[in-house]
Amino acid sequence: MAFIRKRGISPEMMESPTEADGKAGFKPMAKNIFILRNKLPLVVTTGLLAGIPVLPAASAELTEDTQWLCQQNVTGDGWQCNIAPRDTGPIPFAKRAPVAPALKTAPAIPVVVQGVTTQANSAKAVTAQTAPEGAAVSVLPVAATSAGQEKSQTVFKAYGTLDWTQLDQLPLFRQSQRSAKVCEGGYVEPYRPGIDYVGDPSDAPIIAEADESTYLETGQGTLTGNVVVRQGYRQIESDVANMNRSTSEADFIGNVVIREPNMLMLGDRADVNMDSGRAEITNAQYVFHAEGSRGEADKIVRRESGIIDMDKATYTTCKPGNCTWQLNGNEVELNPNSGFGTATNATVELWDVPVFYTPWITFPLDDRRKSGLLYPTIAFDSSEDGNGFDYTQAIYWNIAPNMDATFTPRIMTNRGALIESEFRYLTKSAKGELGGAYSTPDKVKEENLNYDENRWMVNLRHEQNLTSNWSYRANYTDASDREYFDDFGTDLNIDSRNPLHKELYTTYQGGGLSSHQWAMTLGTQHLENMDQDEDDPYNKDIDFNLAGNVNLQSGFGVGYVLDYADFQRDKDWDYKRQVLVDPENDVYEGVFGEGSGINNAVGQRLYAETSAKYRFSNSYAFVEPGVKLRSVNYRLDRLDPVSEDRPDTTAPTYYLDSGLFFDRPTTLGGMKFTQTLEPRAKYIYTPYKSGQELNPDFDSSESSFTYSSLWRDDRFSGYDRIGDTNQLSLGITSRFLEENGYERFRFGIGQVFYFKDREVLIDPTLNPDDNEDTNLSEDKRRILEANKASTSPIATQLVWNIRRDLRLTQDWMYNTNGGYNQEYALGMQYLPKAGSVFNARYRYRDQVDRAEKYSDGPNRGNNTGKYVNGNLEEVDFSAVWPLSPQWSVLGRYTYDITNSRKMEQSFGFERESCCYMMRVMYRNWIDPDDDIDVADEDKGIFFEFVLKGLGNITSSKVGVFLNEISGYSSRKD
Q: HSE on the CB side for 306, CA within 13 Å?
């Protein structure tokens, strides 16, 4: 929001006053306007006009393209005036005023130039006979005016309300914006001549207008009555203006209005240097339109650099007449160059009540960064193992445009002190973050395995481009204990809190613009388990991958993958149970031990894959046959009992993929659509390869079945299993598309038909023929039944955009073999108007019975020996609903139907205006990551108050869980 905008300057705007005949001095234009090319010659011109007795134009006829040109005669004691072509100059002329008939008879009358009556001031007034040597003036004759006649050009003065415009008077495009509705209006800079000027205003001619003017030969002049002075994009209005040609200084007195793009300043008096733009305004008000900020000051000094200094000033983003908050400061500086303001001896007032004092404060004027204190976070947790009163004060250091740091001291009355810091950087070839935290000895005893210990966390992220196609990345996170993030959380940018990642990778992209595209990656990865009751994951001491594709024209292509990894983990990786280590304080710890058999193996894995395909396609069909050859080989250690330490598996996969595309015009509900019909069929055959139970499971799993699963080549993720199959997938999709391509409706349905039972399993201890074993658990029995089924579940997917503001989605998997709903989800989202959203969702998933756990006592967290319903069934309702543009109610309700428990109940309201946003919310919830039997119920009242343009003076991170409401974060303009 620069006070003076530096733009491009056109050559004609920089003409020297002596460059050409008739171009020095000023050129009076139509309707009370004078143009001055040299510094402050306006008052000279008005004085000269007073001495002209009769214009030779009396017997001449002017046209739209001509004007009078008056110059000193050769003797220097008078003026010679002739008709000359009009010089349009750097600013277009206004339409010529009509020429009065009286001028055609050349009567001897006082000259009235554009409604400005020019008078001589005593004996020292300049006349035509004593005009300065070399002066030249163009005079455009206009009709004589009577006393009190209004100016021919109307200047729109909206500054009585500081340019504030009510909502119903805004332009239509702004009325539709939510921000304008919330504010009930907005600042509108009125149109004026010169508002679109491009360049430095000091290089532009001065255009002035007034009811009367006088000029002294010493260089001083006075404009009186409805004074308007424009120079480039700058405009100054006042009752009286005193201007000095020799110093370029001007004093504007009474009802002063200074306008520049995006800026308005008002005052009783202003002293302005017309060359530098420096201005000093007393008893002032100011407005920055784009930022929506305003204020008052005893005195405002706008420096040549555009920086604004104010004495005893205020600053707010509230609309005129409604000041919810304002910042008061003895000395306030607004620096549009840096985008920040500062204030000394500052107080923040809410509804005229001081609530905050600081000897020095900095605040943002836009989105740029600046070093200083950020607004604190204040929270309170009254539970026995909670943090108590929790105060966080962030300190920001803007080191350079491409790097910064944040230091965040934190005081918790129950736990002690903690400091978290973060350093960020960005270069042309790299970016990264380095952060960490350290606490004093933890004072909480209740349910705290880390009592009286210093706790810490470190985090490093770095990405570097070594060349245009070679890069590397590092990601390292570590913490003192598994409960760190549950107790403290973090504001650092961490990929995963469980497991923690410690990895270093480099990648080379090859191929350039050729038909052969390939990439090679080499790295190492260690994963740290942060749960007390889960098995530890495998680490990759070495991780290498090479993959590429070659397109051989005419639809033919080949591909390859080579992957090598060395998997390791500690011996004690297998979670056993929870043990009570401190009965008095109810502290439990997980116990881990060794695994057995193939599950305890570590070692190297080499996977190789080659493929070839050929695609026939046109506008309505495609056929793609393909073949893959996959091979996986191991070299294993730590097998107990001893078994095959070098298992391997090799198997081919053949597939034939095909599809059709039909479309037709159709009409529904009076609307025209294009309906498509897209059948697809894919046959896949992979023969069974025995011995895969000897392969370990380093990173593989059976993928969950969804609609998109219909077209997968393998039912397993990872490389440890090559799934055998002989199957045909059939599916069909239909869409309804509007003329502009918008998808109104989509429905897809499909199923997989198996011609052979699947024998390969993830669990190496499970035999495909074990389904008759009565000792099998329910989850293992279901796996065997699914592998012997002749068909997959029927999978469907529906998306219906009923209207642009109403959307319905459905996903349904029906198990035809067992005759039950395997999975079902139905969701609806309603966005009736800006700022509102309503979501309703039902989810169901058929799951095996879960092991019940003790909820309290010495065995809490361990199995009771009983099994209860493990199905997932829940409903979730959430809404943000405006009661008015300023008031909204917020709420969410989630209910676990299976276990008859409320998972989330929250309700509150949000009040938003131009200058602040306030949220108050009650929340009662259960952490969804906790086991349902031992999960504790949390509750609290959260309050958040944000001063727009200043900061967040209280924060309970309400926005974190509000963002879990789908559509909340995107509901604003």
A: 19
Is residue 609 within 8 A of residue 626, CB to CB? The reply is no
> Which residue in this structure is represented by tokens 């989630």?
894
Is residue 569's pLDDT more than 70? yes
C-alpha to C-alpha distance for 877 and 893, rounded to whole angstroms? 5
Percent composition of the chain: helix, strand, coil (DSSP 3-state, to 5): 10, 50, 40
Q: Which pLDDT does position 423 carry in this prediction?
A: 96
CA trace torsion 699, 704, 708, 713 (10° rounding): 50
922 and 938 fall within a common domain: yes
H-type helices in 95-177, by residue range? 172-175
User: Is the pLDDT reported for residue 812 higher than 80?
Assistant: yes
Query: Taking all residues of the chain, what is their mean pLDDT, rounded to a whole number?
Result: 80
Q: Which of 586, 604, 634 is the last residue of a domain?
A: 586
The model's confidence at residue 930, banded by pLDDT at 50, 70 and 90, is confident
Same structural domain, 427 and 559: yes
For residue 335, tell me if it sits in a domain. no
Average pLDDT over residues 469-488: 94
Q: Are residues 630 and 603 part of one domain? A: yes
**CB neighbours (10 Å) of residue 258?**
26
Q: Is residue 161 part of a domain?
A: no
pLDDT tens per residue, range 138-181: 222 222 233 333 333 333 344 457 899 888 888 888 887 877 88
Please state the rounded mean pLDDT for residues 730-734.
97
Would the CA dihedral through 122, 219, 36, 277 be positive or negative? negative
Residue 351 falls inside a structural domain: no
- Asked whether residue 449 is assigned to any structural domain, the reply reads yes
Residues 38 and 121 in one domain: yes
Tokens of 741: 């391509």
Report the domain count for the chain. Answer: 4
CB 291 within 8 A of CB 334: no
552 lies in the same domain as 527 = yes
What is the predicted pLDDT for the residue at 4? Answer: 27
Longest dimension (CA), the chain: 128
Q: What phi-psi label fits residue 392: left (phi over 0), alpha (psi between -120 and 50 degrees) or beta? A: beta
Look at 439 and 170; give whichever has higher pLDDT: 439
Are 867 and 826 found together in one domain? no
Domain that residue 130 falls in: 1-155+192-256
Whether residues 543 and 434 share a domain: the answer is yes
